[in-house]
Design a protein that fits this description.
The structure is a homotetramer. Chain A has 2 domains: about 230 residues, TIM Barrel (Alpha-Beta Barrel); about 90 residues, Immunoglobulin-like (Sandwich). Chain A is built from 7 helices and 19 strands. The N and C termini of chain A lie far apart (about 60 Å). Chain A is an alpha+beta fold. In chain A, the strands form 3 sheets. In chain A, strands 1, 2, 3, 4, 5, 6, 7, 8, 9, 10, 11 and 18 form a 12-stranded mixed sheet that branches. Chains A and B meet through helix 1 of A and helix 1 of B.
Chain lengths: ~350, ~350, ~350, ~350
C-alpha cells in the first residue's frame, strides 16, 4: 500500500514507508551565484486549489525545486468546510518542507477584479492583515510587512479579454512602491507586454505555475514537460538569499522552451550549458562537437553571415545531448572562421531571441 | 493557465477551459454482462487523504473507470480544519460525477484496531450513524441501511505483522451477516489467504486502490501501470447493476498483472481477450497467430504434454498485441494437435494459475 | 528471447514468437474518401540507411501506417558489402509487407547535386533503368515507366544553404512533365516556399520521413511524437487508390503539430475531429463542450470579433480530449452568438492558419 | 532532418548534425574495481540481425554501456546480399566505437545444433578461422587465439524444449578448456541450471542481450526497461581490464530486476547502493531513512525475526529513491535492535535471494 504515511490513530503507528524520487534540474550556476529553482504562486484546498498543502512540498521535491510559496486567495475561499486563518496552509506544510529541504515562503494572493487584478505578496510575516475591504489597505498591510509584491498573470484573458493593458491603478501601485515585479509567465502563458514593462520600469521578472490541481494533471513529466518556474540567482540557498536576489532582479523565467531574462545572464547560461568539446578544422570545412549539459534545448537560427560559409539554417541543440555541426568554407580560406546565429528561445527582449557568434 | 475551472468570485465568470483525456480500459464483456471497472475504497481531505473530493472523480474519468466510492475513515479525521459531516465528500463530488458519467457510491470506512480492523460499508443512505463508540454498533447501523460491507486489506502489516489471521471477531461479524466480501487485493498487495476465505465462505472478492495521494504519485501510468480495481460483471451500468453483481459475487480483481476470480469468468476472459486469427498447419509444424485485444498480459507456462510436441517453455502475450507461436511435431503426425499450458497470472485458486489447452 | 524471428539453420525451425503492437492513428475520413497514412521516402542498408528492409515494414505497422515506399539512392550506395540491384530492398520487404497488410510501393531516389538535387520516383516497375549518367536520362526512364515523381527536401541546407530557390533545371523538369509533386515537409523541416509552389503550379504536396536510422532513434513516440507523413484521401485502400489520389492532389501533410493542405480538406478535418457535444447557453454566457476524437491538436487564436463577446485569446484543443470553453456576452444579448478564431496549425497558405467561426 | 550523418557523395559534404543522448547507468564500483556495463552478444545484418553495425555502437552509447561485442553467426548468414568476411561488422563499427568511447570486442558465434548448441568466442584476433565443418575445429581455432569462450542461452526452448540439460559434448568442451563461462541470462530468460553450473564448475556468469532487432523494438526504455547485461568488475576501463576480470569471474548479471552473482559482490552492491541517511530511535519505535542511489530496485521480504519487533512483511526499495521505514518494538526495550530480511532479487544461489540484517 503506497498510500501510507498514514499514521493510524486507533491502530497504533504505521509500519510502512513511502518512496519518493527527486529529479534534479540541470542548470548552470551563473555570475558566481547559485541558481535556485522557485515557484512563487500556487494553491491548495485552503483557497480554490484541490490538494492538501503537504502535496505541494512533495511535488516540489520530486520536480527538483528549491523553494515554493503557497499563495492562497485572501478574498476567495470557496471550500467552506475548510476553516482556519489565511496562513494555515503555510503552517501545515512547514514540517514537510523542513524535512525535505524545500524552502517554504509565506505568501498570499490579493485577489481583485481588474484593475488592479491579482497580486502576490510573499515573504509575509502574517497573512491575515491582508484581509481588507479596500485593496489599497491590503497592499498597505503587505508593504508594512516589507513583503515582495508582484502582479500576477497580467494578460489573463478572464480579466484582460483582448489586450494586456496597464491601468491607472497599476501606475498608482507602482508609484506607491507596491509593485516589485510582474509575472511575465504564468501557467502556460508568456506575456510579452509584461516582459517589456519589467525592462522599462526595472521590475523583477517572475514565472510561476499558479497550479490548482495535483500537478501531474497539468504536466506530462515523462514527456519532458516542466512547470513554469523562476530561476533565482542567489548568493546562498536560503530564504534571505532568495529575497536579496529578487530585490536585485536576478531572475530568469523558464516556460516551455523559453528562457526570459537579462542578456548577460542568458549569454552566460548558454555558454555554460553548451560546451565545445572538440573542433576539427580541415581544408574547406570545420567540424564542431558540442555537449549540452543542461536541461534546456536551444533553438538556433542562422543570421547575417559571410556567404562563403555554409552551415545550418536552423538547428536545435536538445537537452543533455551531444551534437556535431559542420561548417563549409572555400578550400583556400585561411583566416578566422565565424558563424552567426540567433538563439530564438533565449528572450532578451519581448519575443526576441539572443544573437550569438562562434569563432574558430 | 491549465489550472482553471476556477470560478472567479470577484471577477465574474472564468472564460477558460480545461482538457481532460480519458483512457478507456479494454476488457471484454463476459457471460452476457457488462464489465464495469470499479474502485470502492479511497480517501480525500475529509479523512486522511490529500486531495479534494472532485479530484477522485477526475482521476477515475481519466483512468477509464465506471464507478468509485469515497470511503472516508469514520474514526480518523486528522485534518482538523476540514469540517463537515461524514458524508460531505460524497456531496461535494456528486455534481462532478454526474457531469462526467462516473457512478458515485456513498460509503465510509469503519476504522478499528485489529480485531476486527478496517471495513468498508458502501451503498449507504447516510454515513453519519456509523459514528459509534462500539464497533458492533457501527456494523449494526451499516447493516440497518442494507450496506454492502467488506473487510479491508486483511493482511496489512500494520495490523497483522507476520501472518494474515482470521480472528474470532471475524467469525462474529461473518455470523451476523455483516461481511459480504473481502479485499483480496489492496494498493500493491495481494492476499492469498483472503482469496481462500472468499472461495470457502462464498464471499465477494474485491480489489481497491485505497489511494490517499493524488493518484499520479502512486502509479506511473505512462509505464502501463494501473490502479488496483474490481471488475464487476453487471447486468447494467448503474448503481443497482453494480449492487446486484456484488451481491451475487460476479467480480474479478485486477492487481498488477494478476486477475483473480472464478475460473468460469477467467476462462471466458482469456478466450475473449486472445483471438486466434490464423492457423497454418504444415508438415511437422503449426503456426498460430494470436491477437490480444485486451489491456491484460497473459503469462503462459508449458504443463504436462505429449513430448513429441515442441513449443515454448514460457511465453508472454502482451496487452494489445499480435503474436505468432510455432509448434513442432513429428513430420508424419496426422492427428489432432494439442498444447497444454497454465496461464500463471489468471488466479483461480490462491496463488495458482489457470490450466488451458489449445487444440488444432 | 525477443530477438527471435531467427529461423535457425542448423537446428531446425524456431519455436519462438514475437510481439508486435500497432498504434492506430485516429484521423477522420474526408470527402467520402478513406484517409491513408503514407510515407513515401526512406532508406535501408541498400543505400545509406542503417536497417534491414523488413524493419521499415515493422516500424510502419507499429506506427499505424498504411503504405510506404523504400527509396534507395540510385547514385549513392556507400555500403559496399551490400550487393544486389536497385530494387532488392523492395523484394526483400515484400513478404513482410504482405503479411502485415502494409502497402509497399516500389521506388528510388534520384540523387544529384543541386540543381536539380534529389527526386523520388515511386510506382516504378523496375528501379534499375534509372541508373544513368545524365540525370535527364534518369528522369526520362522514370517517366517512361509512368512513375510519380516529386522533388525531395527542396530547402535542405546542404544543397540550398540560405534560401529555398527554384532553379532553371526545375523549370525544365516541370515543363517536361517530370515533376508531379514536392515535399513541403521532410524529416523535421517544413518548407513554406515549396508549399507556395505546390499551390501555384498545381503540384501534389508531400511530407515524408526520409528516415535513415532505426526510427526509434529519431522520434520519441512515448512523448506523442510522430513521423512526418502524407495523409492520402483515397477512393480505396490499395496501390491504385493511392496513385489516383496522388495524381489528383488529394493529400494533407502532417509534420509535428502542422497540417498542410487545401482549405476544403482542412476545414472538414477540423469539423470531423472536433465535435460539439454540448452547448449550454444562459443569461450572459454560453458553455460549449468539445470532444476532439482525432490525434491532432488544434491551436486556436482569437481573431477580429464583436468586442462585447469575451472568450479565450488563445486555446489549444489537445488530441483525444474533452474541453469546455466559456463565452461571455452582455446579459440582455438575445441574438445569435459568434466567435471567430484562426486555427494556426492548419496551414491553408504558406505559414498561415485557417480562419473559422463558431455560431451558437 | 534528423536522419543525417548522411555524408553525401554526389553533393559534397553534409552540413547537418545529429543529437545523441547518453543515459548513464548508476551502479556502484565494488571491491576497488570499476564496474563496467557490457553486452557480449548481439547481431547485425552481417548475420541474421536487422541493423547496420554502427547502430549497435550508437545504441550502446545511448544506453550507457562501456563495452560490446558483435558476435555474428559463423554458420548462419541468411542475408545473401551482404558479403564480406566474418570480421567485417567489427571493422565497420570500429571508428564509431572509437569516437564515442565504446570498447569494441571482436567476436563470433559458433552456431551448431544441440549438442553443443551455440557458443560465443570473444577477444578473437581473427574471426575467419572459426569457419570449420566440424565444431571441434571451430573451438580449437578459437582456443588457439586464446579467445574467451562461453555457452549461449543453454535453456533456449528451440534447442532444449523442456529441460535445460548438460550434454556429453559439454563435458568434452569443458574438459578441453573450451568453456570459460555460460550465459545465465539471455534476452528475457534467466537459466537457474546455468547459474548452478557456474557455481559448481567455477565458470564465469554472463548475461547478454542477443539482440537482433533495432533494440528499441525489444525494450521500452521510457518504462525503465533495460537490456540484459554483464556488469564486469575491472581493474581498468580497457579491453585488457575486461578480459582479466572475465578470466577471474568478477561479473554480476543484470536481467530485469534480478542481479546474479557471488554473494560478496552482491552484499557490497546492496550496501553501496542503499545508504542509511537517518536513524531516529525513540521509545518503542525506530525510523530509518534510506537513499537508493543506484538504478536497481531491491525487493525485501521479512525472514525469521524477534517477534517483538514489528516491521514490513515485504518492501520494495525503488531505484533512485528515498524511503522511510518504521520498526516498532516494546516500549521498554533498551538493547540493540535488529531486523532480518531477504533481498529476493539478489540471487546468490539459483533462484534464491540474499539474506541481510540491519542493526540499530
Amino acid at each position: 500500500m503506497k498510500r501510507l504515511l498514514l499514521a493510524l490513530l486507533a491502530t497504533g503507528l504505521a509500519l510502512t514507508g513511502q518512496a519518493q524520487v527527486r529529479n534534479e534540474i540541470h542548470v548552470p550556476d551563473l555570475g558566481g551565484y547559485t541558481t535556485l529553482k522557485c515557484d512563487f504562486h500556487m494553491h491548495t484546498v485552503y483557497s480554490d486549489g484541490r490538494v492538501w498543502p503537504t502535496v505541494r512540498v512533495d511535488e516540489a521535491w520530486r520536480e527538483g525545486l528549491d523553494a515554493i510559496a503557497l499563495t492562497e486567495h485572501i478574498e476567495y475561499r470557496p471550500h467552506k468546510d475548510v476553516t482556519g486563518h489565511h496562513g494555515r496552509s503555510y503552517e501545515i506544510a512547514e514540517e514537510a518542507a523542513r524535512k525535505s529541504g524545500i524552502l517554504l515562503i509565506r505568501g498570499s494572493e490579493i485577489t481583485r477584479s481588474m484593475a488592479p487584478g491579482h497580486f502576490n505578496a510573499i515573504f509575509l510575516a502574517d497573512c491575515n492583515p491582508l484581509d481588507q475591504k479596500d485593496w489599497h489597505d491590503s497592499f498597505g498591510e503587505a508593504d508594512k510587512q516589507d513583503a515582495f509584491i508582484f502582479w500576477n498573470h497580467p494578460g489573463w484573458d478572464s480579466q484582460q479579454p483582448d489586450t494586456t493593458l496597464w491601468w491607472d491603478e497599476h501606475t498608482e501601485i507602482y508609484d506607491n512602491g507596491w509593485m516589485d515585479g510582474i509575472e511575465v509567465a504564468n501557467g502556460i502563458d508568456y506575456f510579452p507586454e509584461a516582459h517589456r514593462w519589467c525592462l522599462e520600469k526595472g521590475l523583477t521578472m517572475l514565472g510561476n505555475s499558479d497550479v490548482h490541481n495535483p500537478i501531474g494533471m497539468d504536466f506530462d513529466f515523462y514527456k519532458g514537460e516542466h512547470r513554469v518556474m523562476t530561476l533565482v540567482l542567489a548568493s546562498e540557498r536560503s530564504l534571505a538569499g532568495i529575497r536579496e536576489a529578487l530585490d536585485n532582479r536576478r531572475t530568469i523565467v523558464w516556460i516551455r522552451d523559453l528562457l526570459i531574462g537579462e542578456e548577460k545572464w542568458l549569454h552566460e547560461l548558454f555558454e555554460k550549458s553548451v560546451q565545445v568539446v572538440d573542433v576539427q578544422r580541415g581544408e574547406g570545412s570545420c567540424t564542431i562537437t558540442l555537449q549540452n549539459t543542461s536541461d534546456f534545448p536551444f533553438h538556433l537560427k542562422k543570421t547575417e553571415h559571410d556567404k562563403s560559409f555554409e552551415y545550418f539554417r536552423t538547428y536545435t541543440i536538445e537537452p543533455q545531448s551531444r551534437h556535431t555541426i559542420r561548417v563549409r568554407f572555400p578550400k583556400d580560406y585561411q583566416g578566422e572562421g565565424k558563424i552567426n546565429f540567433r538563439v530564438t528561445n533565449l528572450l532578451v527582449q519581448p519575443g526576441q531571441g539572443m544573437d550569438y557568434s562562434y569563432t574558430f
